């Protein structure tokens, strides 16, 4: 297993647990974190024994308090532009990972932290979670998808409120608004997220990947195109050995045994 400087990666059965591990900086996301996460996600994706991942923050205070402000403070506009700063987040983690992964948000998820959580397939929040896009207070704006994904998740009214006032949203409001799928007590967060991930990892893997892809298509296309894509993807799944097993197992009243093909 690879040892990283800013993240911890453990395999728990078929679930990969990735922990952002810069607790003194409230797990702020710097370029090392991005490079290491990119590597860890690529390994998770390639490892046939792994079916789902969970990402969380170390310590009880923060998931991630944003992009690393100390790394950005000295950087010039030309440098941000020439490095295409933040492009790696979009290219590597979101677009490439086809297996499902969950964000377990255990405290502050601010700026880039909120944006990273929103890249996950869904968010499970502890009662102590706080979401926000406070970039405006630094005289910038979200740069890793906050203005786009938050708006899609919670609608214009709340997204505008959050981005323009920079205020945080607690777990209750976040669940009510559709940003998170469930809230759990802080001391049960990791167990609950690992349990959900374990459940997903035990599903037929091709079906898991295609279900994820199908839901994501809904954000990228018209209803008509989306329904066509859905039907085609459904039909593709019917050509798998796992489909024969899944339906046979149902008829025979026994659990299915998946081959991933
Ligand atoms: N970056 C770097 N260090 C951080 C960050 C951060 N985002 N957040 C916290 N830290 C550090 C603090 O500096 C402090 O370090 P030290 O002990 O060395 O001073 C340590 O973590 C603990 O933090 P606090 O003492 O501030 O803890 P509090 O409990 O008092 O406050 C807060 C917690 C409210 C979370 C507070 O830390 C805070 O407001 N953090 C910043 C939140 C923020 O603004 N996040 C957005 C960052 S910008 C971003 O994510 C996207 C920018 C888009 C730019 C686009 C360019 C193309």
UniProtKB/TrEMBL annotation:
**Keyword Phosphoprotein: yes or no?**
no
**Can you tell which superkingdom this protein's organism belongs to?**
Bacteria
By its UniProt entry, which InterPro entries does this protein fall under?
ClpP/crotonase-like_dom_sf (IPR029045), Enoyl-CoA_hyd/isom_CS (IPR018376), Enoyl-CoA_hydra/iso (IPR001753), Enoyl-CoA_hydra_C (IPR014748)
Output the Gene3D superfamilies linked to this UniProt entry.
2-enoyl-CoA Hydratase, Chain A, domain 1, Lyase 2-enoyl-coa Hydratase, Chain A, domain 2
Q: Which Pfam family, any one of them, does this sequence belong to?
A: ECH_1
Signal sequence segment: none
Keywords, comma-separated and alphabetical: Lyase
Query: To which protein family does this belong?
Result: Belongs to the enoyl-CoA hydratase/isomerase family.
Which named protein is this?
Enoyl-CoA hydratase
| Taxonomic source organism | Novosphingobium indicum
């Amino acid at each position: 297993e690879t040892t990283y400087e800013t993240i911890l990666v453990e395999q728990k059965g078929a679930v990969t647990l990735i922990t952002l591990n810069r607790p003194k900086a409230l797990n702020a996301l710097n370029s090392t974190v991005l490079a290491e996460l990119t590597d860890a996600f690529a390994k998770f994706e390639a490892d046939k024994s792994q079916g789902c991942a969970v990402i969380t923050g170390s310590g009880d205070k923060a998931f991630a308090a944003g992009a690393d402000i100390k790394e950005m403070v000295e950087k010039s506009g030309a440098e941000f532009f020439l490095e295409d700063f933040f492009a790696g987040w979009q290219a590597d983690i979101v677009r490439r990972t086809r297996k499902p992964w969950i964000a377990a948000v255990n405290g502050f998820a601010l700026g880039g932290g909120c944006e990273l959580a929103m890249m996950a397939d869904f968010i499970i929040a502890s009662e102590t979670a706080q979401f926000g896009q406070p970039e405006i207070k630094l005289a910038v704006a979200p740069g890793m998808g906050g203005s786009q994904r938050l708006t899609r998740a919670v609608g214009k009214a709340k997204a505008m409120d959050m981005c323009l006032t920079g205020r945080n949203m607690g777990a209750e409001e976040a669940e009510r608004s559709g940003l998170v799928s469930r809230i759990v007590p802080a001391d049960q967060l990791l167990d609950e997220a690992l349990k959900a991930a374990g459940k997903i990892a035990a599903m037929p893997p091709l079906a898991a990947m295609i279900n994820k892809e199908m839901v994501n298509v809904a954000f990228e296309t018209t209803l008509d195109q989306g329904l066509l894509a859905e039907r085609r993807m459904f039909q593709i799944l019917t050509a798998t050995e796992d489909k024969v097993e899944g339906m046979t197992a149902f008829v025979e009243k026994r659990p299915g045994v998946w081959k991933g093909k």
